[in-house]
Amino acid sequence: MIRNIHEVKECPDCASDNIIYDDERDQVICRDCGLIFEPLAPGEEERFEFAHGAAPEPKPKTKPAKKPAKKAKKKK
Ligand SMILES: [Zn+2]
Known about the structure:
alpha+beta; N-terminal domain of TfIIb; 3-stranded antiparallel sheet; 1 helix; 11% helix; binds zinc ion
Protein backbone atom coordinates (compact mmCIF):
# COMPACT_ATOMS: atom_id res chain seq x y z
CA MET A 1 0.00 0.00 0.00
CA ILE A 2 1.21 3.43 -0.81
CA ARG A 3 2.28 5.37 2.24
CA ASN A 4 3.77 8.31 0.47
CA ILE A 5 2.14 10.06 -2.42
CA HIS A 6 5.55 10.57 -3.93
CA GLU A 7 5.69 6.85 -4.53
CA VAL A 8 3.14 7.46 -7.21
CA LYS A 9 5.15 8.02 -10.32
CA GLU A 10 2.42 8.06 -12.86
CA CYS A 11 -1.28 8.59 -13.15
CA PRO A 12 -3.18 5.47 -12.09
CA ASP A 13 -5.71 6.19 -14.77
CA CYS A 14 -3.90 7.31 -17.88
CA ALA A 15 -0.33 6.39 -16.86
CA SER A 16 0.89 9.88 -17.56
CA ASP A 17 3.86 11.09 -15.58
CA ASN A 18 2.60 14.61 -15.88
CA ILE A 19 1.39 14.62 -12.29
CA ILE A 20 1.69 17.01 -9.39
CA TYR A 21 1.79 16.29 -5.68
CA ASP A 22 -0.41 18.04 -3.17
CA ASP A 23 1.38 17.33 0.07
CA GLU A 24 -1.16 19.11 2.19
CA ARG A 25 -3.99 16.95 1.00
CA ASP A 26 -1.97 13.87 0.23
CA GLN A 27 -3.26 13.86 -3.27
CA VAL A 28 -1.73 13.22 -6.60
CA ILE A 29 -3.25 15.19 -9.38
CA CYS A 30 -2.87 14.25 -12.99
CA ARG A 31 -2.44 17.21 -15.23
CA ASP A 32 -3.32 15.24 -18.29
CA CYS A 33 -6.68 13.74 -17.42
CA GLY A 34 -7.43 15.69 -14.25
CA LEU A 35 -7.63 12.67 -12.02
CA ILE A 36 -7.24 13.31 -8.32
CA PHE A 37 -5.66 10.28 -6.72
CA GLU A 38 -5.74 9.96 -2.95
CA PRO A 39 -3.70 6.96 -1.93
CA LEU A 40 -3.92 7.84 1.74
CA ALA A 41 -7.56 8.78 1.94
CA PRO A 42 -9.11 7.50 5.19
CA GLY A 43 -11.30 4.50 4.60
CA GLU A 44 -10.21 4.19 1.04
CA GLU A 45 -7.34 1.84 1.69
CA GLU A 46 -9.40 -0.96 3.10
CA ARG A 47 -11.91 -0.66 0.36
CA PHE A 48 -9.19 -0.80 -2.23
CA GLU A 49 -7.66 -3.90 -0.74
CA PHE A 50 -11.04 -5.44 -0.40
CA ALA A 51 -11.89 -4.75 -3.99
CA HIS A 52 -8.55 -6.04 -5.03
CA GLY A 53 -9.00 -9.43 -3.49
CA ALA A 54 -7.24 -8.65 -0.21
CA ALA A 55 -3.97 -9.70 -1.71
CA PRO A 56 -1.21 -7.75 -0.06
CA GLU A 57 0.80 -5.69 -2.46
CA PRO A 58 4.14 -4.95 -0.91
CA LYS A 59 5.17 -2.39 -3.43
CA PRO A 60 3.03 -1.07 -6.23
CA LYS A 61 5.94 0.01 -8.32
CA THR A 62 4.44 0.71 -11.66
CA LYS A 63 0.78 1.17 -12.29
CA PRO A 64 -1.56 0.19 -9.46
CA ALA A 65 -4.26 -2.11 -10.71
CA LYS A 66 -6.84 -0.47 -8.57
CA LYS A 67 -8.71 2.47 -9.91
CA PRO A 68 -10.20 5.36 -8.04
CA ALA A 69 -13.95 5.35 -8.06
CA LYS A 70 -14.36 8.78 -9.43
CA LYS A 71 -13.07 9.28 -12.86
CA ALA A 72 -12.34 12.55 -14.45
CA LYS A 73 -13.51 13.32 -17.90
CA LYS A 74 -11.31 12.37 -20.73
CA LYS A 75 -10.63 14.57 -23.59
CA LYS A 76 -10.20 11.98 -26.24
ZN1 LIG B 1 -4.16 10.86 -15.86
